[in-house]
Amino acid sequence: STIEASNFQVARKTRFIIHGFIDKGEENWVVDMCK
Q1: Separation of alpha carbons 11 and 5, rounded Å
Q2: 34 near 18, Cβ under 8 Å?
Q3: Where is the Lipase domain (predicted)?
Q4: Among 1, 15, 27, 34, which is 20 to 30 Å from 9 by CA?
């Protein structure tokens, strides 16, 4: 897959949330930050 085939929008701000080694992307604080 490529970025062209994704729903990525270059006009919007992009931020990367790094959850660390032990946590997962489903942790509450990660989900809250993505809202």
Answers
A1: 16
A2: no
A3: 1-35
A4: 27
